[in-house]
Design brief:
Layout lengths: L3 H14 L2 E9 L9 H16 L2 H12 L3 E8 L14 H15 L3 E8 L6 H15 L4 E9 L3 E3 H17 L6 H4 L1 E5 L20 E8 L1 H9 L7 H30 L3 E8 L9 H8 L9 H19 L8 E2 L7 H8 L5 H7 L7 E7 L4 H18 L3 E8 L7 E3 L6 E3 L9 H5 L3 E2 L9
Length: 453
């Protein structure tokens, strides 16, 4: 028997509050595509991706029609590409980048992730070659996304890698100056990266993942905002937390239904369900608006970090109650350019770079889709990354940096990326130098709690 009220409630979530399946991401292992011949590597990649993902978009569309639930993005993630050409006599990573982008276009997926390297403890020759190629790879492709893990709670922070990725960010932005540095928006660096994350730009198929699995990312900040707004103005914070958990539970069950059915149609295992409040530039689909519903005048007010901590925890608790497959980066994202409320707060000066950094100590990821002046020195970017990696390392959580030094623009101007990436005001990041600290290089050792075996 169907519960009429629950059916109508789900319809309202979709129609009125922007609930959607944000992404279905097919994670495909390419470890068996390694060869001494780089052309053979690319041929094997093409064959394998087509074998597993040929029907991904078509089957996802069928499920959308059957359930009237929007699936916004269809994506693929692959094994970190740094290992794929290490055995090749010709280490042409750009050829692999072109192959991945071509297959993404042929399979009609929105993005393909995994042009990645994991270097928190050090570099292999393949890692170095891939990182060196990232700016050109991102500037000559349209659907490829890239990530580098430079730190972990076990290994500490590889500051040599931090310096390298700061160069990558600057160069990727400059090579795409005609689109406000869009190349940098397709790159993210991590501490404690997650191998089953379905969200871009950081998705990849980790070494411990199966041959292929379907990971699903569900989003619903508008649904959560509406649930909070319906409570009485004098409802205490424990009541708010309970309502958020209940709402997250409903969202998660819908996502798992869609994910399991699509996985069955594709003939692959269902991987994880990532319940992340990932906003869009659309009004009513904003994490920032949840804070206002909680009683803050705007995101950035004192109390914002506490509100975000409660929101993130309640979302995870609700998801865990609904599914045993919750994974990825489940929680709340705070990307500036992708959230209408965050954009407004940054425009009005309510939300500063320093406040965003404080909020990342309790959110799901980190400094995300933040536009900064194009003339920002690489050392300053490296300092920003090091700060964020330290937050993740000490707190044993995933943190990330996706910042865009917008060529030719400065504070007071805007970067416009379009689509889900939205637009962002160029934020003031101060003028103090980090160069002497960053130039030391080496490793920031892991904290004492890394020895917890």
């Amino acid at each position: 028997m169907f519960d009429k009220e629950k059916v109508l409630e789900t319809i309202d979530m979709i129609r009125l509050h922007n609930f959607d399946i944000r992404t279905v991401t097919l994670a495909v292992s390419l470890r068996d595509c390694i060869s001494e011949d780089i052309n053979r590597v690319c041929d094997k990649i093409s064959y394998k991706l087509k074998s597993y993902a040929e029907n991904l978009v078509n089957y996802a569309s069928i499920i959308e029609d059957n359930y009237s639930i929007p699936i916004v993005n269809k994506r693929i993630s692959v094994t970190p590409v740094s290992i794929l050409a290490e055995s090749a006599l010709e280490k042409d990573y750009l050829k692999i980048a072109g192959t991945l982008d071509k297959m993404a276009e042929e399979l009609n997926v929105d993005f393909i992730g995994g042009y990645s390297a994991l270097v928190e403890k050090g570099f292999t020759s393949g890692d170095r070659a891939l990182i060196e190629s990232i700016p050109e790879a991102l500037s000559t492709t349209s659907r490829l996304c890239s990530s580098v893990n430079v730190a972990s709670s076990k290994a500490g922070i590889n500051m040599d890698a931090v310096r390298e990725v700061s160069r990558v960010i600057k160069e990727a932005a400059e090579l795409t100056s005609d689109s406000d540095g869009l190349g940098a928006a397709k790159f993210v660096c991590f501490c404690n990266s997650v191998s089953d994350n379905p969200f871009m730009a950081g998705a990849y198929c980790g070494y411990g993942e199966p041959e292929c699995a379907l990971n699903v990312g569900v989003s619903g900040p508008g649904v959560v905002k509406n649930a909070v707004a319906q409570l009485p103005a004098d409802a205490d914070l424990s009541e708010l937390a309970v309502r958020i958990k209940q709402t997250a539970y409903k969202i998660t069950t819908t996502g798992e239904l869609v994910g399991r059915e699509l996985a069955q149609m594709l003939g692959v295992p269902f991987g994880v369900l990532d319940l992340s409040l990932a906003p869009t530039p659309k009004v009513g689909d904003s994490v920032a608006e949840i804070f206002q519903a909680m009683g803050l005048e705007h995101v950035g007010a004192h109390g914002t970090t506490a509100a975000l901590a409660m929101l993130n925890d309640a979302v995870k608790k609700g998801g865990i109650m609904a599914s045993s497959n919750v994974g990825g980066l489940s929680g709340a994202f705070i990307p500036v350019s992708e959230d209408a409320g965050m954009i407004e707060a940054a425009d009005k000066g309510y939300l500063t770079f320093d406040k965003l950094e404080a909020m990342t100590s309790v959110c799901s990821v980190g400094l995300d889709m933040i536009a900064i002046p194009g003339n920002t020195p690489e050392d300053t970017i490296a300092g920003m990354i090091a700060d964020e990696m330290a937050i993740g390392m000490i707190n044993k959580k995933t943190t990330a940096v996706r910042i865009i030094p917008v060529p030719g623009k400065t504070v007071g101007e805007k970067a416009v990326f379009g689509g889900l990436l939205g637009e962002a005001p160029i934020m003031n990041i101060g003028e103090l130098s980090s160069s002497g600290f960053v130039a030391r290089g080496g490793h920031i050792p892991p904290p004492i709690h890394s020895l917890n075996n």
